[in-house]
């Protein structure tokens, strides 16, 4: 049977880390990469038996690569502090550990829950379980992706993602990460921001969340989330506009 290492990326997650750890308690090793938390995340994780690795990065690939470096299992499961492994997914991961399949990477289906645990209509598939020897590392500062070789497969069950619990948490996240997003776009040579780009990206984002992804199906919460996503992309592009103008005046 192959050993499983769970790698959890966390920052200031004292309210949620325990539930996350409980959901991966079937793993042989749990590593929490604590990204400069100012609360009791590390203490709670250590008390529950996890290995804690301290870091201070604004690069998610570096965080995931650090966890990979510390892992000793033949299988590596990546999970964030606001995610949970449901019982069906747990069973399927354990079957893989027993040698039921020889794929190198496994996609899981993630269900997202917004604003009071309302289930979002659209699910997404993500590569989260790897055979360690076939995972070469991660690339991308914010929207990271794995560098892998070998065959891929899909697991039944769900990874449950409890995100955007309230407006305060949503705003904090936007303020923190919009600066990183803007810098990535600037460094990639994004065209100069003109006035018409703002309504274009905001309207497109709103329609994607509300119509294409089906936000309208969950009532007011779907409208709020869709409008918030439009606001969030506005903040990112406003920061980009600000950055372009500040560099122009240097």
Task: Give an overview in words.
α2 (41-47) links the parallel β2 (29-35) and β3. It contains 7 helices and 11 strands. The chain is an alpha/beta fold and 250 residues long. It has helices spanning 17-23, 41-47, 60-70, 87-97, 167-187, 197-212, 220-248, and strands at 4-10, 29-35, 51-55, 75-80, 83-85, 105-114, 118-119, 124-131, 135-139, 145-148, 152-162. It is globular. Strands 1, 2, 3, 4, 5, 6, 7, 8 and 11 form a 9-stranded mixed sheet that branches. Strands 9-10 form a two-stranded antiparallel ribbon. Helix content is 41%, strand content 27%. It has 2 domains: 4-162, Spore Coat Polysaccharide Biosynthesis Protein SpsA, Chain A (Alpha-Beta Complex), CATH 3.90.550; 167-248, no CATH class.
Chain-wise SSE layout:
Blueprint: E1 4-10, H1 17-23, E2 29-35, H2 41-47, E3 51-55, H3 60-70, E4 75-80, E5 83-85, H4 87-97, E6 105-114, E7 118-119, E8 124-131, E9 135-139, E10 145-148, E11 152-162, H5 167-187, H6 197-212, H7 220-248
Parallel strand pairs: 1-2, 1-4, 2-3, 6-11
Antiparallel strand pairs: 4-8, 5-11, 6-7, 6-8, 9-10
Helix pairs in contact: 5-7, 6-7
Brief overview, please?
The chain is an alpha/beta fold and 250 residues long. The chain has seven helices and eleven strands. The protein folds into two domains: 159 residues, Spore Coat Polysaccharide Biosynthesis Protein SpsA, Chain A (Alpha-Beta Complex), CATH 3.90.550.10; 82 residues, no CATH class.
